[in-house]
Amino acid sequence: MEEVITATKASSRNQTTSSPSDSAAILPLNIPLLSALLAFPLAQFLKLFTTWYKEKRWDSKRLIGSGGMPSSHSATVTALAVAIGLQDGTGGTAFAIAVALACVVMYDASGVRLHAGRQAEV
């Protein structure tokens, strides 16, 4: 005969087995969050080399500046979506939300770049 676990039993069982140090240890193991947080500075760092390749000069302002390629915002949401897809599979709700977010961010970024380029021509 199977035991039925109620919400009260489950919460009391979790309270006895988890400690504050356990929840702190879970944060570094959140692979989607870590990949998204690492993609942003990596994209910013790569902007140094893309600027050097295009303009033949080192521009350290690109480390903290916005705009240019690769897009750090697009890299962040793409890394998040890929990590969720690899970890949880592509059939889940979290992956669908991450892909929708990535599409909105990249569409917005492409529109901003297009209009900024047109404004620069004027």
TrEMBL record:
It comes from the Eukaryota. The chain crosses the membrane at residues 24-43, 63-86, 92-109. One of its GO terms (molecular function) is peroxidase activity. Keywords: Membrane, Oxidoreductase, Peroxidase, Transmembrane, Transmembrane helix. The keyword Transmembrane applies. InterPro entries: DUF212. Residues 8-22 have a biased composition (Polar residues). Residues 1-22 are annotated as: Disordered. This is Acid phosphatase/vanadium-dependent haloperoxidase-related protein. It comes from Actinidia rufa. The lineage of its organism: Eukaryota, Viridiplantae, Streptophyta, Embryophyta, Tracheophyta.
